[in-house]
Amino acid sequence: MAFWIASSPHNHNKAETSALMRLVIYALIPGIFAQWYFFGWGNIIHISLAVFTALFCEFIVLSIRNKNNISKQLFDGSAVLTAVLLGICLPAIAPWWISIIGAMFAIVIVKQLYGGLGHNPFNPAMAAYVMLLISFPLQMTSWQPPLTLMTVDLDFANTLNVIFSGFTKEGYSVEQLRTSVDGFTMATPLDTLKTDLGIGFTVFESIEKNVFGEHFALGWEWINFAFLLGGLVLIAKKAIAWQTPVSFLSSLFICSFIAYTITPDSSASTMFHWMTGGCMLGAFFILTDPVTGATSNKGRFIIGALAGLLVYLIRTFGGYPDGIAFSILLCNMAAPLIDQYTRPRTYGHHTNTKQEEAK
Amino acid sequence: MSTKTESIATSSDENDEVVDTPPQDDNELALAKESRREEYKELAKQGLWKNNPGLVQLLGLCPLLAVTATVTNALGLGLATLLVLVCSNATVSAIRQWVPKEIRIPIFVLIIASFVTCVQLLMNAYTFGIYQSLGIFLPLIVTNCAIIGRAEAYASKNPIKQASFDGLMMGLGFALVLFVLGAIREILGQGTLFDGANLLLGDWASVLRIEVFHLDSQFLLAILPPGAFIAMGFIIALKNAIDSYLQKMKPKETEKAIERVRVNFDS
């Protein structure tokens, strides 16, 4: 039996875990739809693979652990949510075993070995994503360009072929799919910008490339916008606390704004940081995980600000183009310590300083 | 890590001298033989399973986790540690009467360091490939807590024969864990077994290489240090599971019923 650790006010409502998880999954739908619109069927295939694997692994581990009432725990939605989040993060044309290994790792090692739902120190989806990223760097960075830029028509059957065999029906390889009309391999906007800055281009020269589209990042901006929308719904429904995303986004905004004001040639704009990569997904859906995040409001502000700073630092100075997953894992590690130092004042008690004054 | 050694080493206040008195008759001789056999059996059990330096004492984890990416490397380090452990235990035990208690640790370290230097030079001469792939972890055997722990906790208080046997068993236990961890990581990481065994055992050993399954891309997690931690955790969990299973299978000892003796003062 675990004690609930939550800060006041201790409101009670009758919502069950499964209802909350279902709400979060519904809120992800606009983002998944945007991904489907810009990048094709790949992510939906990966999501379904991951969901099946996660449920299967959850069932196996729960039966080994001799839990009673397996079906209730199995379908409480937490495993499904983990798998959906993982599937969203994966590159759309990654091979099939990527999502299977990822979902297995997330459920068996990150979640169940630590004691199951509510006991995991790390967010399972993000831990699995990082594991995949460092284990299979080639497959995990084979991001396809948005469909409008691709030379090959990637329909559902073709995507399925690419995921399971590595080639389309016409025989194009993953590498060829990523090649643009002029023969260059296209990458994500964040990756492209990082490479270009590394070889001496300025930001303004780099964003002339077609992966950046008209605004910030072709496709990605709408996906992030859709996740923002879903996140706002969650806040309105009081499923997540508003403090974490607000503090995360403003921290990232402030960091990138300072850099942009000082050296506009070598730093991307603030909106580019907000609207590319997994920024909004991380802010609203992953950082707000009630298990691995901070519990008090002050703690949530600190976690969000820390995550924003880390994301900016990793994106700008780190070896990987996007740092959402890494910074969230680091924040998960810091969460117990932050909780320790941000305990809310118990009602009726004074803070230490006031006590000393009274003496 | 040195604090760990200290805590495991028992206090060496009582320098129990084992005086071998000549046994009187055949019966006593057989009894002494039997008890000695029991002692060796217990030493073997402690080193290989019950008190395994890798799985239970968790000593020497740094080389254990760092070099076990392949079976060959693991075997190389395991054999080197085994050799050093046997020699240092024997030497420490041989000079135990003349070592002042106050400076015993520096003396043990010196002994271990000289043996490690020998082993390092030997490997440099005969197995250069392994010498190169083990790198800094070969000289680092000096700081392996398993070795100094055994010298302090056992060899400094027991006669040479038992001490070297203890070193052999502890070393075997450590090498065994290294081997299992290396095998798991090599299979998961590259899909092979005994890759590069010819570097350690000579040219004939290149036939030992087994391709378990073919991987298009290496599973880097298993080769990187985090994979070693995860695999190590699984091995320790497996050992504990086996132990608790054996415990359960054991026939339960019935509790001795305490019977009160009725004393009748009247009679």
Whole-number count of domains of chain B: 1
**Number of helices, counting only DSSP H or I runs of 4 residues or more of chain B:** 11
Protein structure class of chain A: mainly alpha
Sketch the major β-sheet of chain A: none
Total of helices of chain A = 18
Overall strand count of chain A: 0
Task: Determine the oligomeric state from the structure.
Answer: heterodimer
Tell me the overall shape of chain A. Answer: globular
Largest sheet of chain B: 2 strands, antiparallel
Distance linking N and C termini of chain A:
42 Å
Structural class of chain B: mainly alpha
Total number of strands of chain B: 2
- What is the alpha-carbon Rg of chain A in Å? 21 Å
The percentage of residues in β strands of chain B lies in under 5%
Task: Give a brief outline of the structure.
The complex is a heterodimer of chains A (359) and B (267). Chain A has 359 residues and is mainly α. In chain A, 62% of the residues lie in helices and 0% in strands.
Which tags fit this structure?
heterodimer, A: 359 residues, 18 helices, 62% helix, 0% strand, globular, B: 267 residues, mainly alpha, two-stranded antiparallel ribbon
SSE map:
The complex is a heterodimer of chains A (359) and B (267).
Chain A: H1 17-39, H2 42-64, H3 70-74, H4 78-89, H5 96-112, H6 124-135, H7 137-140, H8 156-165, H9 174-177, H10 189-198, H11 203-206, H12 220-236, H13 243-262, H14 270-275, H15 279-286, H16 297-317, H17 324-341, H18 352-358
Helix pairs in contact in A: 1-4, 1-12, 2-4, 2-5, 4-5, 4-6, 5-6, 6-17, 12-15, 13-15, 13-16, 16-17
Chain B: H1 2-8, H2 26-50, H3 61-66, H4 71-94, H5 104-126, H6 128-134, H7 145-153, H8 160-190, E1 192-193, H9 198-201, E2 210-211, H10 220-223, H11 225-249
Antiparallel strand pairs in B: 1-2
